[in-house]
Amino acid sequence: MRQSIVNALSRLRPRSRPLRLVLVGLGLIALLVAFAMRTPAPVGHWDSADGQDRFLRAYTRAFADMPEPQESIDVRTDYGIVRVYRFAGTGTGTGTGTGTAPLMLLPGRASASPVWADNLPLLLEIGDVYTIDLLGEPGMSVQARPIDDDGDQAEWLHQTLRALPAEKFHLVGLSIGGWTAVNLALHRPDHIASITLIDPVQVFADMPLGTIVRSLPAALPWLPRSWRDSFNSYTAGGAPVEDVPVADMIEAGMQHYRLRLPQPARISEDRLRALDLPVLAVIAGDSVMHDPPAAVQTAERVLRRGTVRLYPGASHAVSGEQPEQIADDIAAFVAQGS
């Protein structure tokens, strides 16, 4: 009996060797990736002066497509200095001499204020608009202290809003900016009049596994730019991103800025039900960042004071694809809650 077991095991060993080699190889790859991405720095930072200069040039070119800001403000918080721009409204809406809340625009991951270039002229017809470069992301904000959890993420933004002239703001968050807006509302809602979420991630539905897998090569800065451009184009419904100022800025940030932020966790339905603020949820029908039908169903089910809009055929880059529709929906939403 013992000999038969030995013989059986000896027959299995040659077949198991390729599997062991694959596992060892995968382990070595994981180790090399972890080693290459290691850093002793506890805060977000640039990989080099040349990398920062490249981003700043791209940022300046992209910012040239924005209206002229009335004011550039650097707000000192416990976590670093946050760059905010104020743009004067051109209409008679929420923030133009009426004493009511202006809009505050929060960009997505690895982007900054210039990502709103296509939206600002239309949103300024509603009233005054502020834009912000998220702390810990590539931009003009400078992180100085670790941001360890969701509470820290809310606190730096709360301190920023508290330092600005307006008492309350209509937050408009794009992608991860939408998650950031909801996270603030759950922790420190003091200065929020309403929230507009433009295809938010990790809010109403999980990120698909396929998108996570496709994002991994784009996250490795030493790989060719074409890999990052390919992922950015994928999220934008296949639109070309070469020689586009905002896309150049995002790619430069992805390559040269080292994020040191906690991974945003999916916000539970119970917590979403606790939101006692007006919420406009804009869901892109062809978004690859979540399951759009599931996101719509969740938003309609859990938001106590919610307005849900599905944009058929729109990609995750919906803010640039349909700026007129977004401006119309935000104007109607803000006016209804004023």
Characterize the structure shown.
This protein is an alpha/beta fold and about 350 residues long. Helix content is about 45%, strand content about 15%. It is built from 12 helices and 11 strands. The strands form 2 sheets. Strands 2, 3, 4, 5, 6, 7, 8, 10 and 11 form a 9-stranded mixed beta sheet that branches. It has a two-stranded antiparallel sheet with strand order 1-9. It is globular and about 50 Å long. It starts with a helix and ends with a helix.
CATH superfamily of the largest domain: Alpha/Beta hydrolase fold, catalytic domain
Note the gap between the termini. Answer: 84 Å
CATH topology of the largest domain, anyone?
Rossmann fold
Q: Mean pLDDT across all residues, rounded? A: 84
Q: Which sheet architecture does the biggest sheet show?
A: 9 strands, mixed
Number of helices: 12
CATH top level label of the largest domain: Alpha Beta
- Overall, the morphology is globular
Radius of gyration over C-alpha positions, nearest whole angstrom: 22 Å
Q: What quaternary form is this? A: single chain
Q: What is the number of strand segments?
A: 11
Uncertain regions spanning at least 5 consecutive residues: 1-40
| Total domain modules | 2
